[in-house]
Each structure stands twice: as structure tokens, then as C-alpha cells.
Amino acid sequence: MAFTFPNERWLPKSVLSTRGYTFTKFLRDLIAGITVGLVALPLAMAFSIASGLPPQAGIYCAIVAGFLVSLLGGSKTQVAGPTGAFVVVVAGIVAAHGVDGLFMCTMMAGVILVVMGASGMGSAVKFIPRPIVIGFTNGIAILIASTQVKDFLGLQIDRVPGVFLLRIQSLANHFGSLNYSATALALGTVAILVACRLVSNRIPGPIVALLLGTAVVVFFKLPVETIGSRFGGIPSGMPHFAIPRFHASLIHSLMGPAVTVAMLGAIESIMSAVVSDRMSNDRHNSNMEMIGQGVANIASPLFGGLPATGAIARTATSIRSGAQSPVAGMIHSLTLLCILMFAAPLVSFVPMSVLAGILMVVSYNMGEWKEIPQLLKLTRTDVSVWLVTFTLTVFADLTVAVEAGMILAALLFIGRVASTTTVSRVTDDYVEDGRVHILQDKDIPYYATIFRIHGPFLFGATDKISVVTENMAQLPPVVILRLRNMTALDATGLFALEEVAKHLHATGRTLILCGAREQPAKLIQEAQFEDIIGGENICENVEAAVRRAEEVFEKLESEQAVK
């Protein structure tokens, strides 16, 4: 009889993962942890430098926050640390309030995250619509890339402006100081990262690029800027514990940025946890993840670290390397600590242009660019929410962008829910038209199952669709999704349907949609959803869907007979 923990929803995954934990799993966690620890080194330094802080601040964050999130969080294979999402907002806080202000803001954000998790609001992140997430992700990617142009090209600029347009102007004015050696190194770094990705996802591209780039600079004595020439290297030894100076006068002005850091941390963490779930066949605990992230962000500044959140790329790398439990994330932190204690002098030789090349690729990968063509097919309201969030992120302020996007999304939500209310007269034709939609007189064949969505399927409700795929092995070959009582659909809901379709298709199953009403049917058509599941699998009613299921099953049987 298996041992069960009492009240498991308030236990971190590190505790729950002790069930059935074996030495074989530990060895796989050990390999994964060392691998992702090496990958995290250049990323942690690059994010820290891009934020306006010395490289060790990113390493300290990855060590402290990475360990605490794995120990206390709600995801089995999540790896946390500094990420690109924070670069812009951190740089702004440092410029306006200094390092002490950043540490205060990070700890305030940590308290907010702990409160969110402890009060059961960890899943509140789902109430942020996808157009907003895509909008500020696109914007952040462009801002990060713009901050790396100086080091990518080796330009001689004393101080890069914090405002986007002024930054672009300054880069253009100083283009004549281009360093060909630095540019060649940066382009080579990008080429190495792309090549590693094409060959295999298991190859740690950032480490390969870092080692080769550094070796080239040392061997050929290239005239490029390095971590040693700019920062004097990084200090060896353990991160030092120090309570940051508290300035009561900054609390009011830092409240907005603290909320932004907390929301960005929550969004990025949950997105990363979802990726982790898909790759490791697990299900994260949003509330425990928020508590773990909150504690990590309270502790990170005590050791001179940056804000932290779940890192999607590092999480994916860890899982591909064989991670089985949160132990891999803890080993990742210990790996970085060992580097800091025993190999810190070697880090001084790392070229700035190589780190810039790595961040350029990171900014491209985090941009969600493939989502834009799909988004532009949706309603004008969805497009406007995305465009406003994106524009404000790039040209105004990330805090303003998130606030404006949420206000627009709230208005959009109210409008869509209001539009679902109808008053109409029941006629004989209405009753007759409804007969093909009812289930009571239909025989559901053994090779098919039917799920229904009842009510508006908008952001905030889309996680409920997980009931379709949570017991995938028990599903028959055909899954019918009845949309007759789904009164409204938005971009987030459409994305959730697309994810379900991909999961079912990956296991050889077929998804059929049927009975969609006017607004959902129009959106499904405009988004060209038939390209995902096939036009023949979008049926007018459940009667037609059952007939289509029979055709699919007969074709499947004939294919198996041929084999």
C-alpha cells in the first residue's frame, strides 16, 4: 500500500517526489542538474549585465532562487533563475532607484507572490488573456535585443539610453565605432546556437558557444571587451549574506514596479510549469509554485541576487537531459556554486560579444513570433489588446503596458459575456432545428467519446479543458467536443482548443468539433482552425459528428488491416 501525505496540495513537489525515488532517478537528476547548471552560467551572467548589474548578481540569483524554487515550489522539473522577462523592468528600477531600490522591489514582489500562493490565488494568472501575454513578450524581446546591439557590434558608447527611441538613435550615431572582431564573434555565437539546435536539442548550445568564443579570444588575443576588462572579473567564493538597506520613502514609488515584477514572475513561472508538465507528464501546483517563487525572491536580494522566475529554456533543457524530480534543479544551483568557488577566475576571459550573441538568440526564442500571424486572424478586439500591450511595452513602460492591457481585457471580457445573453421566441422551427443537437436520442459508439463545453470559453476558464487530456490512455480513437452550449470564445480559448487537438493528434487520436454557435463558429473559421484538425472534422451538429466518427474509425481499421 502506497504512502500518502496528508493535505498534499500544500506540500512542495520536492516532498511529494520522494515517493518511489530511487538511486537510478538520482543519477539522471545528477546528469540533468550539472548540464543545466552549465547552460545557466552564461545566461545568468548575460541577463545580469543586460539589467545593468555585474555578472555575479545573476549567478547569485540562479544559485539561491534556483535552489529554493526547486525545494519549495509546485513543479516537479521546473528550473528557476534570472530570465529575459525581468531585464527591462530591472534596468528601469536600477536606473531610477539604484541597487537598493531593486532589492527592496524584489523582496516586495516576493511577499506579493507568497500572499498569492497562500491565499489560493496562484491560479489567478490564468485570468491574463493570451493577447496580453504575447504583446508584452514580443515587446520585451525587442527591448532585450536593442540593449545587446552595443556589445554585439562592439560599439564604443559610454552610456546606452534607457528609452527605446533614444537608444536606437544613439546606436545609429555610434555605428562608425563598430568592432569587426566583436561582430564576428557575436555572429559566430548565433551560428553555433542555431547549428546546435538543428543537430539536437540535447546539445547545450550556450556552453559550446561560450567555450569556443572564449578560446578564440584567448588564443588569437582579439581586441574585444571581456567580463574581466569591464567588470574586473567575478568574485570567488560563497555569495555573501547582507540585509539590503531599507528606504521607507521608496515604498510608494516601488509598489507599481513590485506588482509588475510579481505578475511577470507569476506568468513566466506558470508558463514554464505548463511546459514542464507537458514534457514530464506531470501536473504542477500553482499555489505552491507561487509560494516557492515568492520565498526565492525574498531570499535572492539577501545574497545580492536579481528577481527570479521559472525559466522555460532551462526547464526544457533539464527535462531533455533526464530530470526526474526537483533534485535536478537543486543540483543545477550547486553546480553554479562550485563554478563560483573553484572556477571564477576563468570567467573573466568570457567576451561580452559572445554573451550578446546568446541573448540575441534568447530574445528571438522568447518572442512568440509564430503566434502573431494566428493572432491577426482573430477579432479586431483581440488584435487591439495585443497591439496596445506591445506598443506600450516598447515605447512606454512595462508596468503601464500590463495595466492598460488588463483594463482592455476586462472591458473585452464584460462585452463578450454581455453579448452571450439573448432573448428569443421559441417556435416550431427552433424546436425542430435543435433535434440534431440533442444527445438524448443518439447512440454514442464505443470508438468515440463526447465532451461538452458549457458557457463562455474565455481566458480564466480555459484550464478546465484539461479534463479532456488528463486520462489520455483511456480515451477511444475519436474525441468529439460538443460546442452547442459554448456561448463565447476568445483567443485564449482558441489556443486551448488548439493545444488539445495537438495532444490528441500526437497520440493518434482524432478531434471533432460540433455544434458551434455563431460567435465561436465565426472565430474558428477566421482563425482557420480547419488547418489544424481538418475541415471535415468541424461538424454542424452532434449527429453529423457521430457519422464522421464512424468514417474515421472505419478508415483506421482498414489501415490497420493493411499493416
Verbal overview:
By secondary structure, the chain is mainly alpha-helical. The chain has three domains: about 25-365, no CATH class; about 370-420; about 430-560, Transcription Regulator spoIIAA (2-Layer Sandwich). Helix content is about 60%, strand content about 5%. It contains 23 helices and six strands. It has helices spanning about 15, 25-50, 55-70, 85-120, 130-155, 165-175, 180-200, 205-220, 225-230, 250-280, 285-300, 310-320, 325-340, 345, 350-365, 370-375, 380-395, 400-420, 430-435, 490-505, 520-525, 530-535, 540-560; strands at about 80, 310, 450, 480, 510-515, 540. The strands form two sheets. The protein has a four-stranded parallel β-sheet. α20 (about 490-505) links the parallel β4 (about 480) and β5. α4 crosses α10 and α4 packs across α11 (about 285-300). The longest helix has about 30 residues, at about 85-120. The radius of gyration is 26 Å and the shape is globular. The model has no long low-confidence stretch (mean pLDDT about 85).
Task: Briefly characterize the structure.
The protein is mainly α and 563 residues long. It is built from 23 helices and six strands.
